[in-house]
Specification:
The chain is mainly alpha-helical and about 375 residues long. Helices cover about 65% and strands about 5% of the residues. It is a multi-pass membrane protein. Keywords: Cell membrane, Membrane, Transmembrane, Transmembrane helix.
Length: about 375
């Protein structure tokens, strides 16, 4: 055990003297996050512009007055509601973005079961605001239609006229308010800034952990490994020391990157303890992948190329630069990506989820590590045996 710690501490000192660890573990990902944040940082911020709604509705009509009252109560949308005798003309002239026309006698036609229509005309250049108003208009009309249907059913059931009217009023007035509450759930997706930080942390940890395990190839080339093996040191101890170096470098670099990213870009990842658990799991998965590369690569150059290809491939597929959505078999394969599982786990902790909510992402990352370690034992070593 003492030999293991000695080898690990010595290797860590050498790696910390190597500026490559600092560059790939912190400097490059932070620079890339900064650039990506400038490009995509405002994509999740929707700015609503003032919208004018022209309403042509006869005075005293219940439905028309209800629509006007509903528009006035809308919050969060800069809305100007104007009465106009020819609402559609105002849209054509560019004075309004939406025209709502309620025909004369609409209430009577609706109660009598006759076909009648509320005309809604949108301007050429409309956005989310108009879509919201149209949706609200449809909701109000559907509600009054439901009241008419309920009153007809009550009349056929033999209820008294005053009771039928009461039923119709209750149905028409029920649940007309829709409340929007900002909340955080255990499976919440990260916002743009946090997703960029998490994605780049997952991508570059695959480079960071390579400084440990792949150091076997470098030391073999330089002859250092042969000198170590000339001493009474087991081959397994040497390999384990490299794995510990990868784990330590990966955990420290990823933890620092998330911390600095949270401070600089306002990212929120939730409980530090749960985030630390996710970091350990994803670093374990990344380290296990390095063992496969160390087995199949003949030279240090081949190992670096293979590491870069796998890191970028897993990073892109895991959403390090932009989210990727897929279904079916492809979606299942993408879900098994440890980088995607890591990002999803941070979304869960950022949304207030607990340890039980992390069971899926943790199982994916640790399962990936087990499979890679198993393959590394089965794949023939193309380099010299230790």
């Amino acid at each position: 055990m003492r030999t293991l710690w000695t080898l690990t501490a010595n290797d860590l000192r050498q790696r910390l003297r190597d500026k490559s660890v600092l560059i790939f573990g912190l400097v490059v990902p932070l620079a890339l996050i900064s650039v990506l944040n400038l490009v995509f940082g405002d994509t999740d911020q929707v700015e609503l512009s003032r919208t004018t709604v022209a309403v042509d509705a006869p005075s005293g009509e219940v439905v028309g007055d209800a629509l006007l009252a509903t528009y006035d109560q809308l919050e969060g949308i800069p809305l100007t509601v104007e009465r106009a005798e020819n609402a559609e003309a105002r849209v054509r002239d560019g004075d309004a973005q939406l025209a709502v026309t309620v025909p004369d006698g609409f209430d009577e036609a609706l109660v009598g079961g006759e076909d009648t229509t509320v005309e809604v005309v949108q301007g050429d250049d409309t956005g989310l605001e108009v879509s919201v108003v149209v949706s609200v208009t449809r909701t109000v009309l559907d509600q009054y239609r439901a009241g008419v249907v309920a009153s007809a059913a009550a009349g056929r059931a033999g209820m008294a006229p005053d009771e039928v009217a009461t039923v119709a009023e209750q149905v028409a007035a029920t649940a007309s308010e829709m409340t929007l509450t900002e909340g955080r759930t255990s499976d919440q997706q990260l916002d743009t800034g946090a997703a960029l930080v998490a994605g780049q942390a997952g991508l570059f940890l695959l480079f960071t952990v390579g400084f440990g395990v792949l150091g076997l190839l470098t030391e073999r080339k330089q002859g250092t490994l042969a000198r170590i093996r000339s001493a009474p040191v087991r081959a397994g101890t040497v390999v384990l020391s490299k794995a510990l170096v990868s784990l330590v470098l990966g955990v420290v670099a990823t933890g620092l990157l998330l911390t600095v990213g949270a401070v600089l870009f306002g990212a929120e990842f939730g409980s530090p303890v749960l985030v630390g658990l996710l970091i350990v799991c994803v670093v374990t998965a990344g380290t296990s992948l390095m063992f496969i590369i160390a087995r199949v690569a003949r030279t240090e150059e081949q190992a670096n190329v293979a590491q870069s290809i796998l890191a970028i491939g897993l990073g892109v597929a895991g959403g390090s630069f932009f989210p990727i959505a897929a279904s079916g078999l492809l979606g299942t394969v993408l879900d098994l990506n440890p980088i995607a599982a890591f990002t999803r786990g941070l979304g869960i902790t950022g949304g207030g989820g607990g340890l039980g909510d992390l069971a899926g992402p943790i199982a994916i990352m640790l399962g990936f590590a087990v499979v890679c370690l198993g393959l590394s034992r089965l794949i023939p070593d193309r380099t010299e045996a230790l």
